[in-house]
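Entry:
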Amino acid sequence: MDCDTPLLMNELEISSLTNDRIKRLVRLKDRTHRDQHGVFVVEGDRLVDKARASGLDPLEIYVVRGHPLEKHPNSTIVSPGVLDKASYRSRSEGVIAVFKQFSARLSDLGTGQDPLILVAESVEKPGNLGAILRAADAVDVTAVVTTGTGVDLFNPNVIRTSTGAVFSVNHVHSELIDLVAWLDDNDIRLVMASPTADTVYWNADLTGSLAILVGAEDKGVSAEAASLVNDSVAIPMSGTSDSLNVSVSAALLAFEARRQRSDH
């Protein structure tokens, strides 16, 4: 570069953790700050590329010098050490991007013909919710609905374990009472996984308009939610384990529902 040519803003390199932009980025590790600003953070080339490919436009991008996104108009060049400190996993992979949060409302969901919905109640572990989204993407569900307490959909570990499915799968957070009313209005049956159910899931009718409910890792489906379902199905087990991982249960039921639909 000619010594008389001034550096553009996105050509300067931030090398201090006390920089205001870096301090703000670090604070976004916390859900309170993400929700306050209505944003979420994506790390690594693969996931940032998937987010952009889904149509999301980054508000800010932080990259190391020489990264392919260095010339993006919203890019800021950051030293590798500083970027690693800002990373949720202590290793940035060279790029961290900030996007505006997005979500649908129940009324926004186009149910179409024979919708298939996964409902996750009070799932607390980011890895489990991410895996549910990943399975939902593989099965091509209509939507994933979260209800109750639990992890937020924009937790960095949800994004990572979903392998980007959070960008492509319709997702909604809803109060249980509102969800049940919406399901009733759209003639969508609500079926839950229960170890005490009489019907094994592959013998149950999982065709038609259907919502599959799975519950929290430690307690399963709440008593309130269980009282509102139309039916229950069991996943038979042998061995010493008394339960399956919630994301495994959701995947088994969703894939069985898809298999039954392909046979009709």
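The CA atoms of residues 3 and 177 lie 65 Å apart.
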